[in-house]
Amino acid sequence: MTDMPNLRELILQILNEVLEEGRYSHIVIRQALQKYQYLEKKKRAFITRVSEGTIQNCMQLDYVIDSFSSVKGKKMKPVIRNILRMGVYQIKFMDSVPDSAACNEAVRLAKKKGFSSLAGFVNGVLRQISRKLPDVRYPSKEREPVRALSVLYSMPEWIVEKWLCVYGMERTEELLCRFLEPSFLTIRTNLTKTTPERLEQILGEECVRVQKLNSDEYPDLSYAFAIEGVDSIAKLRSFQEGLFYVQDISSMMAAECAGVRAGDYVIDVCAAPGGKSLHLAEKLHKSGIVEARDLTPYKTGLIEENIRRSGLTNIKAVQWDALVRKEDSIEKADIVLADLPCSGLGVLRKKTDIKYRFTREGESALVKLQRDILDTVCTYVKPGGTLVYSTCTINRAENEDNVRWFLENHTQFTLQREQQLFPGVVGDGFYLAKLKRLASGAIS
């Protein structure tokens, strides 16, 4: 018989790996859920909720802890710090967990992890917080707007300051609110195998809650849905049969923006796991070819796995570094799709820890990488062809500024479409630009 794990101990392990060791939250949580997939749905949901919520609200939780603790969080042992964080999260954000349970379980966990001498400290801090949480005084939005928004929404001050300068107070706070809301899983109907109407019916029979997208906001995505109530996508028969793909709205819109036509040769330069490439191959209706490239065997393996499940034959995975010019591709592609590595500041609902990793230095390095890749891959576009540049961020340096730079340095291209979308009820924040190469003239 399989031993039942202590849920809070699992959560503590996740927090330690993400917040202390620097691993990516979405990967660590996914691996934990896969390892303990035999747990009932309610317990798996508890692991996800407390892990993601604690990471997402980490800066506010630290502020609350520091308001009551004689020892500041930064000076605590990492295990104790994370036990307190998850305890405060349950007290502040989870009505389903009694405060007494959050405190008692935290004390037990401290003892179990070898910190019996600090169990009284943990108990004292959490008991105080449970009694006096309404008395916490947060920084004033009027006097300290940057610090106030940083603490309340757990966003590093330098990012808050940047957004305030660009978007103003009202839009910035709206963005920060959106990023703390639950995320939706979005899927795209495989139109080669079924219809949106039939897929919606099948998912309903599998007890999946299906929500159609707002047609005014996403007029071209009638085949897409947001879904809830899914414990494991891989266990759904509809998924196993390839009736849909899990795909972000941004990826779908990038494929729509490309304007693919029958017989086109398409290169997707940073394609893994292949959702956009498969979408484009499907839109070619068995004609043309989509070359889905990425850097490593692992990433091309992900693409190949999705190709096999799709049953499409006009797509192939190719291992290639986007920074290295492929001579036999020069001026051959009708469409080049460049959905490039970025800060990910548009998808903070799904990748909650990205905001803590991103730095000013990292921003500069990313912008340079994006420009270097664009410099390379634009040479693959044939005269009259299309380059689509997209990111999943709302950072102007990586978006509008990069496109301005590109147009100044590549005068053979013109901007046909530019769109910055912000997080909505369902969709995340992302950017796309459609650039058309003139029918004549060499690329500088």
Question: N-to-C terminal Cα separation, in Å?
Answer: 67 Å
Low-confidence parts lasting 5 or more residues at pLDDT below 50?
A: none
Structural class: alpha/beta
Gross morphology is: globular
- Let me know the CATH homologous superfamily of the largest domain: Vaccinia Virus protein VP39
Q: What pattern of helices and strands is seen along the backbone?
A: HHHHHHHHHEHEEHEHEHEHEEHHEHEE
Figure out the total of helices.
17
CATH hierarchy: architecture of the largest domain = 3-Layer(aba) Sandwich
> What fraction of residues sit in β-strands?
15-25%
Quaternary structure classification: single chain
Biggest beta-sheet profile: 7 strands, mixed
Mean pLDDT: 94
Give the arrangement of secondary structure elements:
Elements: H1 7-20, H2 25-35, H3 41-56, H4 58-68, H5 78-93, H6 99-112, H7 119-132, H8 145-153, H9 157-179, E1 185-189, H10 196-205, E2 209-212, E3 224-228, H11 237-240, E4 244-246, H12 249-258, E5 265-268, H13 275-283, E6 289-294, H14 297-310, E7 315-319, E8 333-339, H15 354-357, H16 360-377, E9 381-391, H17 400-409, E10 413-421, E11 430-437
Parallel strand pairs: 5-6, 5-8, 6-7, 8-9
Antiparallel strand pairs: 1-3, 1-4, 2-3, 9-11, 10-11
Helix pairs in contact: 1-2, 1-3, 1-5, 3-5, 4-5, 5-6, 5-7, 6-7, 8-9, 12-13
